[in-house]
Write a structure and sequence with these properties.
The chain is an alpha/beta fold and 340 residues long. It is built from 13 helices and 12 strands.
């Protein structure tokens, strides 16, 4: 096990010489292979290898934390960070045993104090010099840095479903941590849930599918909606709908209420972020804003209450996203029945 002080010195040196470091995957893979018994995977273009299952993993965000908990790895976690909402009841007991190294985004100092032997993140932007450190810096310390395939579009074949990328994360982490059976079962169960949701959608041409606006948050009176590159576009496709803002190549762009009105969606999906607690986060507040707006209140989706509420955090890729997909599929079915 690495000594925290030595790891801190090594990380300081790595920060000073980052430009000379080998890529994390190459460095880790080469050294680990010499020891025998190596398990390796490719994560966002880097080869990560371990000679034994990690024992002191750190998850840098909530999505990664919940994935590791779903795989039953809480006893091998040395820390978590960046919790955005409450942990679900099913994970709570396990989560409370894990140190929180940072309430928000972890820094390099906070990470090295946890003495990790493996780091997991749902997004690549958590690995920067002013945050946890780059993947190259961590690789120089023999600390593999895993990134979700969902946040690595340049390495994925065009058209790959974000859900398939999530499932590949489970299976790769399962191999690295030696819990392949749990990972395969998790991926299989969620594949079945996606297939079930897909059966509810109408087999219509894209232009004939109902349009959906996904209202994620309202900040300073302005709506943030799902764009083309976010998970909701894929959710829409699966349930036989179409994201009304799939012409904007961003995850959650800020738009105007007038733009929402121009799209005149058939359905509005509200992401409930009540637990985050910022102004305008709750589903109740979002409904109130829409019903009070002189233009939005006139949309048929608002007048006829063609609104579906889902947990907001589940609209970003995570182990919980299939739950939101099921809520959308069920909501679409109920709205279709009501319209008859």
């Amino acid at each position: 096990m690495r000594h925290p002080a030595r790891l801190g010195i090594a990380l300081t040196l790595a920060l000073a010489t980052a430009g000379c470091s080998a890529p994390a995957g190459d460095r880790t893979g080469t050294d680990a292979a010499a020891g025998g018994g190596t398990v390796s995977v490719t994560s966002c273009g880097s080869r990560l290898a371990v000679t034994a299952p990690p024992k002191r993993a750190v998850a840098l965000d909530q999505a990664s934390t919940e994935t590791l908990l779903e795989l039953g790895l809480q006893d091998r976690m040395a820390g978590t960070a960046n919790l955005k909402t409450k942990i679900p009841a099913g994970y709570r007991d396990a989560y409370e045993k894990i140190p929180v190294i940072a309430p928000k985004i972890a820094t390099g100092e906070q990470l090295r104090a946890a003495n990790p032997d493996f780091v997991v993140a749902g997004s690549a932007d958590l690995y920067t010099e002013d945050r946890a450190g780059t993947r190259e810096e961590l690789g120089a310390l023999r600390v593999p840095a895993f990134v979700s395939a969902v946040d690595c579009p340049q390495q994925n074949p065009a058209g790959t479903s974000p859900f398939d990328l999530l499932f590949s994360d489970y299976e790769n982490l399962g191999r690295l941590f030696g819990v392949e059976e749990k990972a395969r079962k998790l991926a299989a169960d969620q594949r079945a849930a996606v297939a079930k949701a897909g059966k509810t959608g109408k087999n219509a041409a894209p232009a004939e599918r109902p349009t959906v606006v996904y209202l994620y948050s309202v900040f300073n009176g302005m709506p943030y909606v799902a764009g083309k590159s976010g998970l909701p576009s894929e959710m829409s496709r699966i349930i036989g709908a179409r994201n009304a803002f799939d012409d904007i190549d961003e995850d959650w762009p800020e738009v105007s209420w007038e733009e929402v009105a121009q799209r005149d969606p058939d359905i509005i999906v509200i992401g409930d972020l009540s637990e985050r607690g910022r102004p305008g986060d709750s589903a109740r507040e979002k409904r109130a804003v829409m019903t009070a707006h002189p233009v939005i209140s006139r949309l048929s989706a608002v007048r006829d209450d063609r609104i579906i509420e889902v947990p907001g955090i589940e609209l970003d890729p995570s182990v919980r996203s299939v739950h939101a997909l099921g809520l959308l599929a069920d909501g679409m079915k109920d709205l279709d029945r009501a319209a008859r």
